[in-house]
Every structure is written in C-alpha cells, then in structure tokens.
Amino acid sequence: MFSRLKRSTRRLLALLAVLPATVLLLGTIYMLGMEHLEGTPRTFLESIQWASETLTTTGYGGDNHWNHPLVALFVILGQFMGQFLVFLIFPVFVLPYFEERFEVRLQNVLPKMEGKVLFYRYGLVIDPLLEDFKRTATPFVIFEEDLAQARHLRDRGYDVVFGQLAEDSSVLARVRDARAVVANGGDHRNATCTLIVRELGFTGPLFALADEPLYRAPMLQIGATDVFTPSHVLGAALASRASVRISPPAEGMHLLGENVGMGEFRVRPNSPLAGRRLGELRLRESHGVAVIGAWRGGVFTTSKGPDTVVEPGAILVLVGAPRGLEEVERMAMPIRRSGPIVVAGFGAVGHKVREILRDAGENCVTIDRAAAPGVDVVGNILEHATLVQAGVHEASAVILALSDDGESVFATAAVRDFAPQVPLIVRVLRATNTGRLYRAGADFAISVGEVAGQILAHHLLDEQTLGLESRIKFSRLEAGALAGIHPWRSEALERTGAKIVAVERGTEVIVTFSDEFAIRPDDVLFVCGSLNSLERYRQAF
Predict the structure, then answer these.
(1) CB neighbour burial string for 82-104, b if at least 16 within 10 angstroms, e if fewer
(2) pTM listed for this prediction
(3) What pLDDT score does 466 carry?
(4) Cα-Cα end-to-end distance for the chain
C-alpha cells in the first residue's frame, strides 16, 4: 500500500514519523545530560520542550546557559541540526506535497478521441501547426513524456496527457478512435509510438517526423502512413525561394515572348515611389507597366486599385514592356537574379540546400567557419572580407542557414548593408523570431515549423501547402464581359487584383493602350496575377 502512494506523499509520511522520534531522542539525551553532567535535573516534559524549541529554532526561554563541555557541544550540534532541518523540510518534503495537491492534475490517460488528432511529443516543429489547430477550433491532444513540458503546455491551454509510453502503453488505449496521429518524438521513440498505436487498433493516418531520412523506409514498413524530414523540407523551401530554376517567378510568361517582361524592384526609402499611391504614380499610363503586387515581410500582396500604397522596403513585382521596366528601374533598386547563390552555414540544412541547388544546375558558393568538404569560403559571415571573397555583391541570392537565430539577426543586418540589392533568405529556428529577422532586413524568413506545419496542415486541415496569393501566373483568356472596356480603366477589374498586360488582336500583340482603346469581343487577353486574383477575375468576367 505504501509503495503505491506518490513519492511526495511517501516522503511527507516518513518525515512525520521521523520528527517525533528525533524530538524524543534529543529530549531524552538532554534530560540525562542535565541530570548527570550539569547537576541540574530537568523533567521529561521540560526536556521534550527544549528539543522541540531547538529543532524549530524558536528559542529557549529559561535554558540558555550550560557549563559542562559535553552538554554545550550537544546543544550546539542540536542548534545546527535545527537550522538544517528548516531548510530541508519545506522545499524537499512539504512544498512538493502541497504543489501536487493544489495544482491542476495532468491527465494520465487519453480522453475520448473521436474526431481528435493525437500529437506524440511537443516540439518547435509542430508549434505553428498547434496554433493553426487552435485558430480553426480543431480538437487535438498532446501526449508528452516530459513533466515540465507537459505543465507548460497545459498552462498554454492545450489538452495534454502525461505519461511514459514505453512503460505503460495502456495510456493510449483510446487512440483507436483518433482521426490521425502525428509522431514527433525522435526516430526511435517514433518507432515505438507507431508500433504501439497500430497494436492498439488505430487504422487511420499516422504521420511521422524523422530526424534522418534513413529511417523513412523502416517507419513506413512498421505502419507509418507517411514520413517527413523537416530539416530537408526546410532546405528545399530555402532553395526554392532563392532559385528561379526551382521556382520560376511566373508561370506562362513564355506566351508573350519578348513583348512583355517581369521585373522585381526594391523600394528604397528615398525612392520617388516610396509612400505614394499607385493612382498618383500612374505607372501604366506613363511607362506601360503594371504593379502585380509587392513582397513585404515574406508575404505577397496583390495590388488592388489606385489607392494601393507603395511601402518603403517592399519588393515590387511589375510586368510590362521591357523599355517601361527599364524606366521604372531608375526609380527603384532592381533585384539581382543573376550570379551564384551564396549559402552561409553548412550544417544539415545548409548541406541540403547546397545539394538541391546543385541538382537544379545553380552555381552555389558555401560559407562556413570550419573547413569541410563542400565549403568554398572559410570565414565569418559578419566579416567584410568573407562577404567579398564569397562574391555576395554579385550573388543572385544569399541564404543564411545558420543554427542560431541571434547570429542570423546580425548576419542579416551585415549582408543587407553590404548588398542591399540581393534577395536575402534566412532560416529561422523559432517562429517567434521571424519578425525580428524581417526588421533586420530579411526578404524571406522561413522556420522549420512553418514548412512542416504547411505539410501537415495540408493533410490534417485540408489547407493548401503553398500560398496561392504568392504564385504569379500569366493566362490567355477570352474578352468575355470586358468587351468594350479599356484594359486599365475598370474598377471591377482592379478589385480582382489581376492585370491585363497585353491584348492579342489578329496577328498583333498590343502592350500599350491609347486613351481611346477598347477591348473587342474577339480579342484575346493576356492576364497576369496571383492564382487567387485570377480566380476572382474568372468569377467576375
């Protein structure tokens, strides 16, 4: 029976048994010492009173002077024992007992799991996904094996179950009714979780997050529905942001040949474009170019009408006649899209980034503090000499794949100051640091939680894994309801965010439009925009 009690309860009961015995022992020794050594006898009750006052350090009353050396030594030792017990009893015995009694108890078995997703172990990889679950009111339960982490998650308002799966698999008995399971406990623990969950009768989808791709095939063999390697997915996301060969800037641009081009321009604070509305700038009327949208803080926003403000620091995406783009270039800073891609940091993520870029045919230069096979420049990314040696000023993009967010902030500021025209993509460890990196000058800051969360959200929340608002496409469409309207003077068209960049009339492709120009029913329109804005265009026209 005693062994079944909680550890803090057993400690407290042992203390309650030992303390009276200690008081009796000290009181008896004191009574004998006072009678035979001091020659001033004390009653048993007086001796017990002295022992309790000594152990509790509350003072002595009458007995405060002793003549015999042995009695004095005994009293001194008793006083030190009392001090020691005061500092030992409360933090070790009493406080843990009351903490367990008054805190909200953690669950130690799964609740009813119908319609819920089970997450095995918490981690930064799944943190953004958990926030998405809360935002969409999607029910989930976290099984956590670390007590401090479980309490922290409970304080955040998550439904948490605490236990040790390897010791007692019955805590997951209700998992058979779960909608899905996500294993995030490391490769070996994930294997244990997968086997136990399947043994308990769960037949639904089980997704495992692997540290090493080597474990992917065995995990699938023992029951995982799919296995993802977050660090490699992050490497692919960083590489695709940097390389136009992996992720072309616009789909379908070949339809217009050399008649229409696309440009990306960073708006400097002192640029004549900064802070002004598109209606004031009249870029289409003056230069024959249309602003499709702008990148700001890693988010692409389509321009929707003349009231759209051009923000300093944003990267504008424009389409139009090549000559018009050259004219706008003089008002802003063009974004380089030629030259090598520089990768700083050659850990697991940096190694994967380099591998993907090389496979895509990109010229890649790697920087790391330590010499290793695959490292082209040995040095610190913060040093001017290292940036010069790596050719950062001539790069088409810089990827910071560093393993510390604090170091990434300093490196971001250093690279942005050295090469303001170069796109800067930064790896983020903690999603909460993303805003700091954008303020330091990053164009794109991507965390492992963001990319892993997008993949899992696609399977668990039926959400798209790519932001449709950021994928630009050219479409060749019939005139439809736009017949008789000027391509640049339709409020309904502006509200969709899509832009008519050219009109095919017979064998002629028209890219600049006079004030009297009107779309004919038999014209073919070349429309550019994000996938969302093109869908709005189709619904409207």
Answers:
(1) beebeeebeeebeebbeeeeeee
(2) 0.70
(3) 45
(4) 78
